[in-house]
Each structure stands twice: as structure tokens, then as C-alpha cells.
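thought: user wants a sequence for this fold. calling inverse folding tool.
action: design(structure=
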């Protein structure tokens, strides 16, 4: 009697090895927007900090985080599990499992 197996892929956990970086895209956008607001919309006079510079730094950081998030979200990685069931020469049930996955290029 042949048994059927279905490969079950649970949803990726945050911080786990299969996390795709969806939050970093949102974080990059938020940083960019806050930086743009500080640079172009806020006109406060102060002597201890340059808000334009802080805004440009936040926009640059947001852009970098956004690009990194896109790279992690769009990279292709897959795993394939093959299960073969049968009967050996002595009549015992035999199952063979083989899992192959693409290498993780980004460390």
C-alpha cells in the first residue's frame, strides 16, 4: 500500500532561518519618510543639532534598509522533498526520503 506525503511548509518565523525580511522594507520606508519630514517640513531654529543633516542621514539609512529588505525578500530559495515507498525483497515496507535545497548565497 503506497502512502502519500504532502510537504508542509509552516509560515516563516521572525528571526528564523526562513525569514524573508518583510518588516525591513516597511522600516526602510518609515525611516525615509521621517527623514524627509525632518529635512523638508520642519523648520526649527536650534543650536545643538542640525535637523536637515539628521533628516538626510535617516533618508539614506531608510534607503539602504529598504534595498536590503528587497534583496532578502526577492532571493530564490527552495527545498524539495521526495518520498519513495515500496517493498523490498523480504516483503518489508521501505521508505526513502531525500531533501534537496538550493544554496543560500547571501550570508
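)
observation: tool returned 107 residues.
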Amino acid at each position: 500500500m503506497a502512502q502519500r506525503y504532502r510537504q508542509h511548509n509552516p509560515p516563516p518565523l521572525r528571526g528564523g532561518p526562513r525569514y524573508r525580511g518583510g518588516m525591513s522594507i516597511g522600516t526602510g520606508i518609515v525611516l525615509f519618510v521621517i527623514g524627509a519630514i525632518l529635512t523638508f517640513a520642519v523648520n526649527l531654529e536650534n543650536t545643538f543639532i542640525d535637523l536637515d543633516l539628521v533628516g538626510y542621514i535617516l533618508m539614506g539609512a531608510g534607503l539602504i534598509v529598504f534595498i536590503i529588505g528587497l534583496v532578502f525578500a526577492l532571493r530564490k530559495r527552495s527545498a524539495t522533498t521526495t518520498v519513495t515507498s515500496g517493498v523490498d525483497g523480504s516483503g518489508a515496507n521501505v521508505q526513502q526520503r531525500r531533501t534537496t535545497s538550493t544554496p543560500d548565497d547571501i550570508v
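thought: summarizing for user.
answer: Here is the designed sequence. Residues 22-100 form one domain.
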